[in-house]
């Protein structure tokens, strides 16, 4: 199976989006303390308006409420549960983002991979600081196991803060000696909550979307009373020897690029397969803009090929859609 190549230069649409974000959203982010009320409510409501858009054609959504586990079961076009399932952990700095903001992206990923997806509705800070979201991610994975999904049929995915939760979930599984999923995918992961490199990187090349001070604010809010060096928060230092193969996609405009580079280096140093794709001219979590960006659609298609090829290599049937 041939996977699409990473473009060598950004499309006209990508350049336009980056400029729009730089001139419109970034100045607001520079000034707004997003974790303070009522600012947080405004930010949550603003991002949740994404959920008003029509879902991709042929997709279906079913709410799940089983004990402490909440989420959406999302089925894209031409999917088959026999191919496996996706567990998705959404981004939003641990403080915003929701099922509404991410259900469209997850539906597209479901269609690309040929398997249904469970989008976890985890608890958010500041109302529910660490370890609430990390515990909910683990509970969602255990729920899939409990409802009959073999670990080798599960792919875990997440973007931004959800990428941190993916890494934290793998670390928790390793620490507890629980079975690992087949693969993991991270989009623009927010991994180093100390944000040690962000300001310097942003001074060299200004991020169109993510202000370093807001990332720092979100990380500190999520950590709550815990030190940012706590073993479950410091995912870059986690033992990765038992991790499954990992794909990381990130844009080269991002102040968070260094997080992806350091994660890929540490995964490879543990002897685990890791693909790091740095996409020219792309903004934070650019696959989420797939209705507008050809690169977003190509990235999602690549994820589909990555998951299907691993399933084939591991003997799990994954029929191309």
Automatic annotation (TrEMBL):
<dbReference type="Pfam" id="PF07859">
    <property type="entry name" value="Abhydrolase_3"/>
</dbReference>
<dbReference type="InterPro" id="IPR029058">
    <property type="entry name" value="AB_hydrolase_fold"/>
</dbReference>
<dbReference type="InterPro" id="IPR002168">
    <property type="entry name" value="Lipase_GDXG_HIS_AS"/>
</dbReference>
<protein>
    <submittedName>
        <fullName>Acetyl esterase/lipase</fullName>
    </submittedName>
</protein>
<keyword id="KW-0378">Hydrolase</keyword>
<dbReference type="InterPro" id="IPR013094">
    <property type="entry name" value="AB_hydrolase_3"/>
</dbReference>
<feature type="domain" description="Alpha/beta hydrolase fold-3">
    <location>
        <begin position="86"/>
        <end position="286"/>
    </location>
</feature>
<dbReference type="GO" id="GO:0004806">
    <property type="term" value="F:triacylglycerol lipase activity"/>
</dbReference>
<comment type="similarity">
    <text>Belongs to the 'GDXG' lipolytic enzyme family.</text>
</comment>
<dbReference type="InterPro" id="IPR050300">
    <property type="entry name" value="GDXG_lipolytic_enzyme"/>
</dbReference>
